[in-house]
Structure to design on (260 residues):
């Protein structure tokens, strides 16, 4: 049995029923596939059985890369690198279906990188089928007016529709993680707010949710130098808290912030 590396957040999915469930989320026949962190290739085997057009794998671990090369030979194209270092738009010229059992320690960083780097009307992927720690997944799919709602939900819901496929218990992995996992399905939206710079949305949500227990008055003052006209224009009650504003309101606030 291959030893997983804690430093890379490795937990290999071994449950055949879950692997089958993942592969049935969407039709992959004759489609380009990208798998992030294939590990020992358990999901990769299921992908190849479904007749994809081509399969790309991104694996940071050199040891696992050599194992996968020996296992799948010419059936796959392996990129031995950290996914956070890769510009997918430069490597892939056609849209892909992306699978990933993301390392828990960098899963949100990966998702945010992909969202903020999306070109307008030019998504490099057709859909994302990703596994997260359940607590993180709950934050991604949370609705406003709930305790788990925050910047991760706002950023995700800017350009992506997301739904939960299923929860996955620790005994589906080797080694067993200490927490449950969730499988999420992401599909690009056709209509969304266009910003001059997506990082402005990141800035706005960070300022608000870093003070999530405070009333909106404080982050509004920080963003708009004490001017209340924007809050009045958007009909926002400054006595509310950040979790009480819908994603759409945050998008409108960001548009106003970009006018400064």
């Amino acid at each position: 049995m291959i030893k997983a590396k804690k430093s890379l957040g490795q937990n290999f999915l071994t449950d055949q029923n879950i692997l089958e469930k993942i592969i049935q989320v969407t039709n992959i026949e004759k489609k380009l596939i990208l798998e992030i962190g294939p590990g020992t290739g358990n999901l990769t085997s299921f992908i190849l059985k479904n007749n994809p057009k081509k399969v790309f794998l991104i694996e940071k671990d050199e040891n696992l890369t050599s194992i996968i090369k020996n296992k799948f030979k010419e059936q796959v194209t392996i990129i031995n690198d950290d996914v956070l270092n890769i510009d997918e738009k430069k490597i892939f010229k056609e849209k892909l279906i992306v699978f990933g059992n993301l390392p828990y320690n960098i899963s949100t960083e990966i998702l945010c990188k992909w969202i903020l780097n999306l070109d307008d009307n030019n998504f490099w992927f057709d859909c994302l089928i990703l596994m997260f720690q359940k607590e993180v997944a709950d934050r991604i799919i949370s609705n406003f007016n709930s305790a788990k709602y925050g910047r991760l939900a706002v950023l995700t819901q800017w350009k992506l529709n997301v739904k939960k496929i299923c929860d996955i218990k620790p005994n589906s992995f080797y080694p067993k993680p200490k927490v449950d996992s969730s499988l999420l399905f992401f599909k690009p939206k056709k209509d969304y707010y266009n910003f001059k710079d997506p990082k402005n949305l990141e800035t706005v949500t960070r300022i608000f949710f870093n003070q999530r227990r405070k009333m909106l008055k404080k982050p509004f003052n920080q963003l708009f130098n004490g001017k209340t006209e924007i809050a009045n224009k958007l009909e926002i009650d400054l006595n509310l808290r950040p979790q009480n504003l819908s994603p759409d309101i945050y998008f409108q606030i960001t548009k106003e912030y970009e006018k400064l």
In short: The mean pLDDT is 92. Strands lie at 12-13, 32-36, 54-58, 77-79, 96-101, 125-133, 160-168, 173-174, 181-188. The chain has two domains: 6-188, 199-257.
